[in-house]
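Re-run with default settings, no changes from the original entry. Doing this only to confirm the output is reproducible before filing.
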Amino acid sequence: MKFLKKKFTQKGFYPFILLFALLIASALFQSCEQTNIFSDKDDVELGQEFDKEIKRNPKEFPMLQGHQDIKDYIIGIGKDILNSSPKIKKKNIYPYTFQVINDTIINAFCTPGGFVYVYTGLMRFVDNEATLAGVMGHEIAHAERRHVTQRLTAYYGVSVLLSFILVGNPSLLAEIAANLFVGLAFLKNSRDDETEADYYSIQYLKSTKWYPGGITFFFDKIKEEQRKKGYTPGDMDRLLSTHPLPDDRIRFVNKELSKISPKPDPTKGLYTDEFQRIKQKLP
């Protein structure tokens, strides 16, 4: 969190000007849910802090060791989405990395600044490459739409964050740093965040080789597992705690797909054989 200390202790500002800015920003925050006091640069530096913490905690986040072919496969999908879609606006601002966590958990997540993590449990769960690309497109959208730092701003409030500039608050800094990794608290997306990320996943994949509705196969399989077992399997708990899946979210995605002309064929652009070859190599 060093970047926050630097951001909130810059010299050359006068207290009265800052107080005025504080009042204006607070008023804006009250009228706009999308307020985000963090810059793109802050998002990148915050994502780097996340990445360091993830690497320091191998019990919680066991990064895949070796298996470069699997890592390259995930990196390749991520880069293809970035390079193919003109809808991704921050590809030259955020570093965008794609990494693999070797765990049975069925999940993927993205921290600010474009740090995407895919679990091998997710790769085992899905059946084709289009589904995996759809989920990764969804995570890229979380970075592009800056959902985590929007939630940070909303949680602490513009006035509280700007108070760092005026008086500094080391205890609050410590709280922010600690809370970021308590149950991945700030990775718990709202329904609106999820709907927006689903929308952009479709938009991103429209320009790629994959079926743009790949994420719908993921939804279908989750629902099928819940139906067969009569409950939510434990390896899905983290997924559904950070990515809620209400029925209206599924209806929204299907509605957006119906707007595409010509209508995409859900039997094409799946790349099942390529995916299954990689899947067989999972440790």
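The first helix runs from residue 2 to 7. Residues 4 and 173 are 8 Å apart (CA to CA).
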